[in-house]
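Table S2 (text version). Query chain:
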Amino acid sequence: MSELQFDGIEDTIEAFVHAIIAKGEFIIVLDSVSRENEGDLILAAEDATTEKMAFMIRHTSGLVCCPVSSTLATHLALPQMVLHNTEVDGTAYTVSVDAAHASMTTGISAHDRALTCRALASPGSAADHFRRPGHCFPLRARDRGVRERRGHTEATMDFCKLAGKRPAGALCELVLDGDEVEGRPERRNGDMMRAAECLRFGKRWGIRVCTIDDLVEYIEGQQLLRGKL
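Corresponding structure-token output:
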């Protein structure tokens, strides 16, 4: 891993802002070894396309979550999934949704999930523009971002804010393919990607890779410069 280094936060923000076709790129964000110790593939929801969603589904666990700000969650009437959250890291899942759009089918395809992501990010969306339950899982972010909770949900919202994007994203955990078992419908060693695997994956696909710890340091540094810390 010595030859592969994490990207700086400013370079990661730049990738999140735009790409060759004026749409934001994926980024990979890792949390602490003492927390989940996982890398999430993250995209601004407004930049979700069928092709990007297909890539996300192919290389991740496939459970696509959509971090949103608390203000947006309230505006779209997205209550918490359960009254008493016992998830190990307190991830704030809301009810799942699909976009209520004429081109939607079952909601699970790459096209349908990309459409739902874009609908969540649309300034004109309202609560009745979504079906409940659905196949995308919004996550309500804490208002102070990674300075309040060092999770991928908050990291996504902070990157959206820093990049001037709408307060909605799409993320999913990167996973290893594992090994085929000859003659059996099984795979072995299909674990989550950790730091080394995430760095190699990022290099292969040209995706910026950073850490939440570096994001916290960057935000605190920027706020210190502005006298707002």
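Notes on Table S2: The two ends are 34 Å apart (CA to CA). Strands lie at 27-30, 39-44, 65-68, 97-99, 130-140, 169-173, 179-181, 184-188, 208-211.
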